[in-house]
Specification:
Helices cover 70% and strands 0% of the residues. With 310 residues, the chain is mainly α.
Length: 310
């Protein structure tokens, strides 16, 4: 195949990026999967336009060929620090982030080492590291548990977004070896975590995903119901609801009188899911519950009755 002629016919060097990208996408009408892989690979290795590269990386997702995966890893590991123009530097970083997303879709555990190298490189831009943390969670390799925990625990790590993504990835991995360290972080580093409310939310959310009716997790989630952050309390309510613990109802019910309306609402929904319509009737009838919550209960009853009629 004459790749240069194909690319020239697509307008790579003569048409705007959007037109060239559409023309390359239209090649699927004329070439089979193996041929398209060869064309895409050639593009990835020879095209400099970052915007066009991003579009081509998206196209490769339909084939996910092993040969393309090797090129994606190569692009990820080439930061091109010599780019002086800030706009171009930003565009090329977006190319590398798109590479990470495409790599994650392969679910290939052989890519974990390269992703961990980027994750652990503190000189790397936090957005690249963020994408790698997310990819590691989606690939699901247990080898990534310890490095991700290290990121969450590292008090010198400047990017709270990276910590949040690492905590979220641990939940996706579903490895029970992360339970004790995450519980320890939640229980012993409150001063540190208080500065990062979103991080606490992600840790609680991850514990909920890891929860196999584990008593240590239930204890940590119970403490999180009294956290100063409403979102942490809401995440804890959801996690407890999904835990299957025999005391779930008893733990969540006091949250119906929380100071925050959204927490009350989420507690009501959780209890409705756990025990049904009786909790709605109770909230409406008893004077201890706020008017806001009574209204929410009536709204749920209306939805409940509407569903029954359908």
């Amino acid at each position: 195949m004459d790749f240069n002629t194909i690319l020239a016919n697509c307008g790579i060097w003569s048409e705007p990026t959007s037109v060239a990208a559409k023309n390359i996408a239209d090649l699927e009408k004329f070439y089979n999967s193996a041929e398209l892989t060869c064309i895409y690979n050639y593009c990835l290795l020879n095209i400099e336009d970052s915007d066009l590269l991003i579009q081509i990386i998206k196209l490769t997702d339909s084939n996910r060929a092993k040969s393309t995966l090797a090129i994606l890893l190569e692009l990820l590991q080439q930061p091109k620090d010599d780019i002086s123009d800030e706009d171009e530097k930003e565009k090329y970083m977006n190319v590398r982030i798109m590479c990470v997303k495409a790599i994650a879709n392969y679910k290939d555990t052989s890519t974990v080492t390269a992703l961990l190298d980027c994750l652990n490189n503190k000189k790397e831009h936090y957005r690249i590291r963020l994408a790698c943390a997310d990819a590691l969670g989606r690939i699901g390799d247990r080898y990534a548990v310890k490095p991700l925990l290290d990121v969450v625990e590292d008090e010198d790590e400047k990017s709270v977004y990276l910590k949040e993504s690492a905590a979220f990835a641990l939940g996706l991995l579903g490895d029970t070896s992360a339970i004790d360290p995450l519980v320890t972080i939640l229980e012993s580093k409150q001063g540190f975590l208080d500065k990062f409310s979103f991080l606490k939310e992600k840790i609680v959310e991850s514990l909920g995903k890891l929860n196999f009716n584990n008593k240590k997790i239930i204890k940590a989630l119970k403490s999180s119901l009294m956290d100063s952050s409403p979102m942490v309390r809401i995440n804890a309510i959801e996690a407890i609801m999904n835990s299957g613990d025999e005391d779930s109802e008893k733990l969540i019910k006091p949250c119906l009188q929380d100071e925050d309306d959204e927490v009350k609402k989420n507690a009501l929904i959780a209890l409705y899911n756990l025990i049904g319509k009786d909790i709605l009737d109770e909230v409406i009838e008893l004077p201890i519950y706020s008017e806001y919550l009574k209204t929410e209960a009536k709204n749920l009853i209306e939805e409940y009755e509407s569903d029954d009629e359908e």
